[in-house]
Amino acid sequence: MSRAASAMSALGALFRTTAFKLSFAYLLVFALFAFAALGYVAWNAQRLLSDQFASTIDAEINGLSEQYRLGGLRRLVNIVERRSRAPGASLYLVTTNTGERIAGNVGALPPGVIDRPGQFETDYARTEDADAPASHALVRVYILPGGFRLLVGRDMEESARLRNVIRRAFGYSLLFIGVLGCGGAWFITRRVLKRIDDMTETTRIIMAGDLNGRLKVAGTGDELDRLANNLNDMLDRIGELMHGMREVSDNIAHDLKTPLTRMRNKADEALRLAKTPSELKAALETNIEESDNLIRIFNALLMIARLEAGNAREGLSDFDAAEAVRDVAELYEALAEEAGIPLEVQVEDDLPIHGSRELLGQAVANLLDNALKYGAPPDDGVPAQPIAVAAQRVGSFLEVVVADRGPGIPEAERGHVLERFVRLETARSRPGFGLGLSLATAVARLHGGVLRLEDNVPGLRAVLVLPLRTSGVPLLGSGAAA
Amino acid sequence: MRILIIEDDREAASYLVKAFREAGHVADHAADGLDGYAMAEAGDFDVLVVDRMLPKLDGLSLIRSLREQKVETPVLILSALGQVDDRVKGLRAGGDDYLPKPYAFSELLARVEVLSRRRAAAPNAEPTTYRVADLELDRLSHRVTRSGQEIALQPREFRLLEYLMKNANQVVTRTMLLEHVWDYHFDPQTNVIDVHVSRLRAKIDKGFDKPLIHTIRGAGYTVRVGPAEGEE
């Protein structure tokens, strides 16, 4: 590519930038303002000038016609002659009713002018230099008693000069605005463009895979800095999400791979070693059980993902949490009894919430499930401590508590166990997938609440805190049906 | 029983057709929504198994159109979207039951069989008394007797037995019990339901020669006279 062509294309790129377009638009607007202001001033100055001319002319006509009335034509002619000779004099002409010149300093006039009484503009020539090009004047023709014509006028040269001055001002300001504007546009464009180009380059690198890159912040606190800051925050968030995703997929890979491998190996083994149909059948049945477990894990994962994405919101309705909690407690009571752990249920009446009875039920079921699985104290002959299930109003919140007297969860681990697939070492030997608390947390979040894990000294106290429905205020999805 | 499977995944459909035939039913298959609609409208099926996402006419629209045409064949919706609001949408469109994918065939079979029976029995003529051998349940007075001996049941146990007896000789799964007795649709992860059933069993079958509540391995429970196939 030739140098000229590359320079052209660089210029083209400059013209295409937003900064340049904006600067250019500002330039245009400012130029328009300047012209409007100047034009207004010019128009007013012109008007002022011609007003002044007109009143001067009127005053002279009045004076001269008064002189004519007092002293007749002779006196008028004398005065006109005298005034005509004065330096910087106005224009005077006295003629007969046929237009023949009697006195004055006006030589030639376009024909017919002298017969038109009133004020107007016309071309003229002075008597002293008839060769000079015709000038322009504002004149007034007055018909005196007796048919004589009196013309008084002012040369418009001053007005023309003013116009010239203004025209020049127009020109200069155009040049000024143009040069300054273009310079400014170029400067700003270059500056902004430089930073934006830097940003573009950084984002390109980040897009290429280096998620650790961050945009430069100039520290001026301007909008580009704010943009850079926001983009950096966004990148942080994306990084977190990516990390979370990776963790989840690693965990999924691990937790799904293990049973899948086991399943595969068992099928393989059965195929090679099973001698009798009943052995084969048993192997197949184990396989089905394992795949059922996989389906469970999968469903739970999907559900958590769905809840976390907030997609389940449309299925929410108003219901009484007291009843829902009682139902679930009743569902688990038999199981608890079987395990030799009493269930102490204390549920307040009338706990209206807006949400999903189904999901709340499942969350409480998961908590109870955990309490029954891990909440039993070590088997040392001591009678099992009861598990407490409670639902109560605390301020404008509903608290659903499931508290056991088991070994509990060390404080450092409490945040951790809410994550997917996290199972404490002590829980590894028990059945489960490590999704129960994740699901309960997701349910709490969907309802605008939280899941708190506390020390029950000893044991674990899991508290679902959910906002109660404020009575009288129709909530989303409930008011429409009424 | 004649079952129409409307499912666009050929492999899944042929698996279902085969499995239903093995279970002793007649199964037909339609591969898209329009074919499915035409067949459902014309043929005399006992149950429709409808996938929610179908080419040409989606599952829910198909069900809605059938209901508008006064085709009241029971419909079970199969869906990859196994969430609460999807179930509600499916039932609102005119579906009778909903099963999220992936599912166990035993679960699907149990549900389809229960649905077909519901159709066979005239809807208004639901008897006030259920009877299986010498076990009797009176739905009005909430009394249960076996061989004339009254058995005291908790309200929930009563509902459990009521549901089992309503579907006597049919397999009902744990999920179905949780749905109909507790009105929860989640997956009972532990053996919560089993404990309730074994309690009920202790009250109903203890001291009698012939047990009436049977556990079907890999599927669920059934109330019937004599041992059932696949019983543990």
Brief account:
Chain A is built from nine helices and twelve strands.
What is the multimeric organization of the chains shown?
A: heterodimer
In angstroms, what is the radius of gyration of chain B? 19 Å
Which pair of protein chains has the largest interface, and what are the residue counts?
Answer: A-B, 36 and 26 residues
Sheet-strand content of chain A, in percent, reads 15-25%
For the record, give the distance between the C-alpha atoms at the N and C termini of chain A, rounded to a whole number: 73 Å
Mean pLDDT of chain A: 80
Tally of helical runs of chain B: 8
Number of strands of chain A: 12
Helix content of chain A: 55-70%
Rounded to the nearest angstrom, the distance between the terminal CA atoms of chain B is 26 Å
The run of helices and strands of chain B is EHEHEHEHEHEEEEHEHHEE
Q: How would you sum up the major sheet of chain B?
A: 5 strands, parallel
- Regions with little confidence, pLDDT below 50 for 5+ residues of chain A: 473-482
Strand order in the largest sheet of chain B: 2-1-3-4-5
Low-confidence stretches of chain B: none
Order of helices and strands of chain A: HHEEEEEHHHEHEEHEEHHEE
Number of helical stretches of at least 4 residues of chain A = 9
Strand arrangement, major sheet of chain A = 2-1-5-4-3
Shape of chain B: elongated
Rounded to an integer in angstroms, the radius of gyration calculated over CA atoms of chain A is 50 Å
Proportion of strand residues of chain B: 15-25%
